[in-house]
Each structure stands twice: as C-alpha cells, then as structure tokens.
Design goal:
Blueprint: H1 6-14, H2 20-33, E1 41-45, H3 51-56, E2 63-68, H4 71-80, E3 86-90, E4 104-110, H5 119-129, E5 130-141, H6 147-156, E6 174-176, E7 187-189, H7 193-202, E8 206-213, H8 217-222, E9 235-241
Parallel strand pairs: 1-2, 1-4, 2-3, 4-5
Antiparallel strand pairs: 5-9, 6-7, 8-9
The chain binds S-adenosylmethionine.
S-adenosylmethionine binds at residues 46-48, 51-52, 68-70, 73, 92-94, 110-112, 115-116.
C-alpha cells in the first residue's frame, strides 16, 4: 500500500471542518472581525485544503485566490471546492505572487508563519498586493504557547513539567511540526511577539487590533482535553491595514 503523505494524514484527520480549534473558536472570530467580506477580492495565503476559503464563500465575496505551494493540499482544495469565484494557485508565498500590486481587499494568512523562517518575504508581498486601506489578518501559534515543550512531549512521549512556563522564549529554535501525523514533517519556526509586530510595521502595514486566543466552552464540550490548555495563550490574531 502506498505510504500516506503527512498532508494526506492531516486532511484525513481534520478534513475541511473537523478541527475544533478552527471550527469552534478561531475561524468564527476571524470571520466576524474581518467583516465586511461581501464583494471583496480576497487572497488566502497558504490556504491548505481550503478550510477557510469554504467558510469565506458564505459571506458573498467577489473573488478568492487560494494560494499554496503544496500540490497535495491544492488537490484536496480543488476536489473540495468547486465555485467559479475561487481560483487556486500553486505558488510559494515567499516569492512574488501572480497578483497585481494594489489589487486585493483582504489578505488572510492562517498558520503558515510557523512553517516559514523569513516571514518578511511573505509580508513584503502582502503589502504589495493589498490596496490602500486593504486589510491583513495574520493568525499563528502564539509565541508564548510552549511549543518547544509540547514538541518534546510529542517526540518522546514523556511529560515535561516545564510546559507551563515560557523558558527558552528568546531562543530561535526549529522543531518538527505535525509530529503525531507522520514521520515526514515540515519544520516549526518560533517567532517572538516583537518579530511578528515589527515585521508587520516594517512592511508599511498599521496594526489595528491584537487578539490572544486560548480555548472556549464549545471546544471543551467537544473535547474535555482542551480544558488543560485553557489558561495558555495558544493563538495570536493580528489585524492590520495598509
Ligand atoms: C498548517 S497549514 C494551514 C492551512 C490553512 N491556512 C489553515 O489554517 O487551515 C500550512 C499551509 O501553508 C502552506 N505553506 C507553507 N509555506 C508555504 C509557502 N512558502 N508558500 C505557499 N504555501 C506555504 C502549506 O503547504 C500548508 O498548506
């Protein structure tokens, strides 16, 4: 039998709408904060299997470009979503994107920065393609979420009692992501709060709002294991404008 790629495992586990984090907390908040969406030209950078694109469609956008460099993920996206308002493009978002300068109303980038070493390359393109007053929504793992220890536990199966502190926060480290899914994994890059904020500002975008997110009651009802993470910041959402 052909070995499943990690993208196939991820898609099989989370599909388009099976991740409680995205379904019950993150995407509802993101969609609410980023209204109005109606009639807008949108780019979703690192769109994966299209889990955000499918939800954006409910808000009547004019056009959505879903961009990703993974053929595997784009195949799920194109199989999952057939809508003439959506175009999926295979492209590396660290390089010049096939979108005109000053043409996009809203750019989303969710859970891609931790797979990217040089986030400035992405932000340079975000700034170029956005219209004046166009909006940018960045969602990524909160730098205080003790990913390093979390990864340690996943790697070794041993409890790490350092999990509740942020020791090692200033260290640049690279781990392996999606460890439970498969042996083949993309790297995980840690970015500090100042890295996220300064790189947005340095690319001529103005920060409008920051949300630090953990878990909510709906998630805990869906899976009681989320309770132990409810006092940890898990995700940061930064809303910015050109
Ligand atoms: C963790 S997934 C998140 C997918 C989606 N945004 C979501 O939140 O469900 C990260 C995605 O970013 C894509 N990605 C990572 N680096 C990229 C790059 N340099 N260019 C294009 N896509 C990239 C990966 O292929 C993957 O689909």
């Amino acid at each position: 039998m052909k070995k499943q790629s990690w993208q196939e495992k991820w898609n099989a586990t989370y599909g388009l709408n099976k991740d409680p984090n995205r379904e019950l907390l993150l995407f509802p908040l993101l969609l609410n904060i980023s209204k109005p969406i109606k009639g807008k030209l949108i780019a979703d950078l690192g769109c994966g299997n299209g889990s955000l694109v499918v939800k954006l469609l409910r808000y009547a956008p004019k056009k959505i470009y879903g961009i990703d460099f993974s053929s595997n993920f784009l195949k799920f996206a194109t199989d999952n979503i057939r809508d003439k308002r959506v175009t999926f493009i295979k492209s590396d978002i660290r390089r010049r994107l096939p979108l005109k300068s000053n043409s996009v109303d809203i750019v989303y980038c969710t859970f891609v920065f931790n797979e990217t070493k040089n986030i400035n390359l992405i932000l340079k393109e975000v700034s170029r393609i956005l219209k004046k007053r166009g909006r940018f929504y960045l969602m990524t793992t909160h730098p205080f979420f003790p990913m390093k220890y979390y990864l340690y536990e996943k790697y070794t199966g041993k409890k790490n009692d350092k999990i509740l502190n942020v020791k090692g926060y200033f260290e640049n480290f690279e781990g392996k992501f999606n460890l439970t899914m498969a042996k083949q994994t993309p790297p995980f890059y840690h970015h500090r709060v100042e890295d996220l904020i300064n790189s947005i500002i340095n690319n001529n975008l103005s920060i409008r709002r920051v949300n630090e997110l953990s878990t909510n009651k709906k998630m805990i009802n869906a899976d009681p294991r989320y309770k132990e993470q409810s006092d940890m910041p898990k995700v940061i959402l930064i809303s910015a404008e050109k």
